[in-house]
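Q: Given only this backbone (322 positions), what sequence would you predict?
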């Protein structure tokens, strides 16, 4: 595991260097200062790491992997900039969000430009370029659909577990699916392999999102790098919230009412205790672990002697605390 940790740290450092080395002009500062701020090397870089690990398992072209990895990280950054505006989040990775540091107009424009930068990176992939671009843009549209469902679901107390899982398959799963599938498309592998790798990434993404839902309620703000309970305050129907609403409706309403009117640490502590004592924390853990186990099974499309790092990557996400 120590060797693997060192390996992914090298990938992370390479991604950060490539992002820092993007030819971003100085002027107009209104556009480019926020972009530079958003690309600072403070993210976990899970998505470009997954691109590299999958590509290495497939012996894929390194230059192509570098461009795909940067494209998906830029796409991810674009979605975060716009999501933060829509969700009224003021902190990201322990720093102010773009709309908080500047304003909404600046953040919207910067997010749009970051998406263009992602597109420009995709166009540098030479092998199977048309297929790569088509897949990348379809995934982008699917992510937008997921965000639209997420906004529609806010404060809708009829949202089911099934509907929620379909939404996060679009919003979170699609991009992780792309991280695993795009290297296979670039190498011209058969449709079954591409689809299996897409499925692997989507399962990983759904597990990641449910884990994130729980951490956003039971972790701590310093570890998460953002304020806890922000999704709850915005009326988001996350997985543990849906379980709490369905299983303990009256108690849940009584519990969150003080938090919604006056969010504070004491209210969050009571919510943590409730989720733990009712078994909802454990149910959420079991659900996201089931997705991680399904992801492992899907990896059988890759020969066993070449998928060790991807297995370790699943373990790394499974054990994260922020």
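A: Predicted residues:
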């Amino acid at each position: 595991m120590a060797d693997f940790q060192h390996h992914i740290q090298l990938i992370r450092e390479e991604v950060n260097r490539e992002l820092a080395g993007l030819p971003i002009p100085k002027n107009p500062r209104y556009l480019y200062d926020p972009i530079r701020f958003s690309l600072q090397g403070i993210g976990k870089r899970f998505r470009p790491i997954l691109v590299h690990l999958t590509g290495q398992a497939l012996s894929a072209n390194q230059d192509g992997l570098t461009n795909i990895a940067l494209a998906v990280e830029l796409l991810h950054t674009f979605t975060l900039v716009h999501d933060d505006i829509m969700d009224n989040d003021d902190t990201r990775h322990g720093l102010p969000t773009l709309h908080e540091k500047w304003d909404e107009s600046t953040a919207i424009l910067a997010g749009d430009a970051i998406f263009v930068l992602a597109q420009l990176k995709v166009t540098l992939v030479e092998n199977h370029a048309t297929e790569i671009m088509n897949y990348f843009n379809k995934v982008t549209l699917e992510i937008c659909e997921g965000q639209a469902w997420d906004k529609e679901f806010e404060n809708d107390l009829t949202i089911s577990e099934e509907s929620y899982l379909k939404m996060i398959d679009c919003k979170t799963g699609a991009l992780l699916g792309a991280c695993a599938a795009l290297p296979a498309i670039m190498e011209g592998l058969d449709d079954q392999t591409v689809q299996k790798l897409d499925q692997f990434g989507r399962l990983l993404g759904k597990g990641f999102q449910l884990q994130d839902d729980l951490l956003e309620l039971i972790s701590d703000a310093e570890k998460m790098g953002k304020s806890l309970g922000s999704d709850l305050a915005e009326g988001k129907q996350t997985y543990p919230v849906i379980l709490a609403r369905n299983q303990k409706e009256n108690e849940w309403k009584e519990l969150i009412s003080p938090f919604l009117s006056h969010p504070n640490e004491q209210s969050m502590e009571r919510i943590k205790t409730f989720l733990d004592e009712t078994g909802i924390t454990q149910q959420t853990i079991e659900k996201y672990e089931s997705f991680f186990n399904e992801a492992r099974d899907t990896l059988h499309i890759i020969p066993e002697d070449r998928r060790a790092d991807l297995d370790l990557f699943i373990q790394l996400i499974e054990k994260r605390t922020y």
